[in-house]
Amino acid sequence: MDNEIPIIDVSDLVSDHDAARVASEIGAACRGAGFFYVTGHGIPATVTARLFSEARRFFTAPSEIKGAAAITQSPHNRGYVGMGEEVLDPDMPADLKEAYNIGLEIAADDHEFLAGVPFRGLNLWPDLPDWRENMLDYYDRSWSLGMTLHRAFAIDLGLPESYFTPMFDRPMATLRLLRYPPQIENPEPGQIGAGTHTDYGNVTILAVDGVAGLEVQARDGTWVAAPCIDDAFVCNIGDCLMRWSNDIYVSTPHRVTNAAGRERYSAAFFLDPNPDARVACLPTCQSPDRPPRYPPITGADYLKSRLDATYVHRSHGG
Does residue 95 contact residue 86 with C-beta atoms inside 8 Å? Predict the structure, then answer.
């Protein structure tokens, strides 16, 4: 890694004009930095601006509105996460942030929900007019962009373009709104906005509302600041895709600090596969000299193993 995060214009991938070239650029970033910016993605800036306006509306709402949607009420990783309820780095104090998780929207009579399929739960919606509709619009746009990126992954890894499509038609994708308060004056030693961690799923699509704070760990161990770039998303590979690719793609440690003196908002779309997707070494990522490094596992079992180690309420049986 040359200590810079590459910027990739994906418009030719979105339009299918020159997908192979863009896929090659994305593949190089996935093998190297594990992070890359995308421009030309097709999501209007007005949509992202509305997302952050709605995020502020929720996080500044009365405590009873936020508490009514608390994640402690959901076994499916949905709802509001209060300040200090998450520990991304187990060796450090709790993170200085609050969050709200939104999953795939399903109905109460959904067959997988009724059957108790893992991570097939109902979203917990706050009592705010039009909030649900605006969140789901952004969720669907991010899902579409995530699948466009998966076309690039497949092309780069020598697979059919649609290889991942059936494993992401009902994904365990999470849209996570995040609010980081200004860094407190006397934090506990090592306490920051989000502790050092890697992401769990296949790919993360991050929008930031003008306040930087994301830092990416380079291969030499130094920390590289990820500046805010207008109308660009920061994308990174997660542990699940690293596992699928037999460590050809790299899931890179990162963290969040907030030294700007004002609150920071971001929105991360974590794209995980369907619960029953079989995460096993891709056929093009193994050889006699590079045998599979991980046993097969379902998407749901893998995600559960990671979440149980992160949330205070889950680690205590909640």
Answer: yes
